[in-house]
Amino acid sequence: MFIEELTASVRLEDHQTEYKGKLNRDDVVGWLKTIAGFANAAGGDMYLGVEDKTHKLIGYERMVADKERNYFNNQVNEHLVPRPPMKIEFLRYTVKDKERFVVHIRVETAPTRPVVLKYQNIPAIYMRRDGFTNGATYEEIIQMSIASQNTQFDALLSEIRYRREDFKTLLDFYAEHNDGKVYTDKALRSLGFFDENGMLTNGAVLFADDYDGAKTAVTCSVFSGFNKGSQRIVTVNRFQGNIVQSIQNICDFVYQRMNHSLVKTDTGRINIDAYPKRAVFEGVINAVAHRDYFLDGTQIQIDMFRDRLEISSPGSFYRGAEIGVTYDLSNIISKRRNEIICAVLVACNVMEAAGTGFDKIVEAYARVDERHRPYISSTSDHFTLVLPDLTYEEGLEDSNRMKLYYPPVSQGTDHDDKVLSYCYKQARTAANIADYLGISNSSYLRSKVLNNLVEQGYLLASRQSRTKFYKTNSDMVGLE
Known about the structure:
Elements: H1 3-6, E1 17-20, H2 28-40, E2 44-48, H3 62-79, E3 80-81, E4 86-95, E5 98-107, E6 116-119, E7 122-129, E8 132-135, H4 138-148, E9 157-161, H5 168-176, H6 185-190, E10 199-201, H7 202-205, E11 218-223, E12 233-239, H8 243-257, E13 260-265, E14 268-273, H9 277-289, E15 300-304, E16 308-314, E17 324-326, H10 339-347, H11 357-364, E18 375-378, E19 382-388, E20 404-405, H12 416-422, E21 428-429, H13 430-437, H14 443-455, E22 459-464, E23 467-472, E24 478-479
Parallel strand pairs: 1-2, 11-15
Antiparallel strand pairs: 2-5, 3-6, 4-5, 6-7, 7-8, 9-10, 11-12, 13-14, 15-16, 16-19, 17-18, 18-19, 20-24, 21-23, 22-23
């Protein structure tokens, strides 16, 4: 029996069709690049359980077909970023009264491209052409980026129809923050919550009462010490639900577990919370509003340490450069990654339309000393707001500064230890390092500090396009 007998929609193996007898466990990249190539081009179909050259059906038993599908999903989730939109179905047929199945995978063109295949920490971009999958050209990568740069996850239409009764949590949240006013269907429609045919956008789906998907996953942890590596985890809670529930769950977690203290004054006592509630709320709203919802398998991370609270959200600042570490929160310009989600939160009066949430955090910490100043760090895959614990008198321990040991640096500088610590776990640019050190990105930094460390083997230098990155050489520098 041949695949043509099972479904009339199949074609010869071309730029949109691929047949495989089974997924090769020893060459995962060999078939993953086909999926990435489909997503970066015009989409395509992969059939598992079909002989490549003859199109003869090999098929699977039901249980084996299910395992093949699960293995496929796991590998895609682990190695393709962002995960391409796709549908998987089983095509059933019988041979001598025994049922067999072909796994049909329909891959759509990814709304955000390029889809990158990351395997063993090596990224690659592929394109499907004329029945073959090859590396994308520079021009193709540029075209993909231009085509998808205005695509936002939350603005894409879903296959779910709007029903007012499915959004009681959101409607109550709106009324709570708008003096009991009613959030009308007209108002929801005007901001793009659903279209003229009543179909919800992806962002709207995340506000539904019964939403319980991984897009809103949150992990909240409390650590006994100053870092994750060597300290006991006191508590770990994991949540996922609609966006309103996520905001409430995170805030409740922090409010219930943060420290409190009293300060005596001439006229009485002042109660001090470890973290100003306004700052926590603004930080949580910012993390939810600007999260990159295209990134599957990620979560908002809430970590409480002895000296600080960290609120981390997947995705770098939208259309912005990596800012490394900065204490100048008021001058951060954060463009909206999710227009629908942000518009709903603005309408609910929990987010400023002018983007002044960071200003509220600065105000909440206005009277603190230098060791209790909040800051933000941003990399290519996440951004983190750090709020110091106001009840911890010593202030922030330098969480980015590790205790290292290494041979003395010839003609070393006072910056060497900080640079090696900052670059130990992640490669950084000279601009990142300059921001972290609080100095200018000058020829002195590059020649006397960075190049000196590179020449002696303490730092490893590499290039991505025109940008130079520095990473601490763990063969020369060790952790105490």
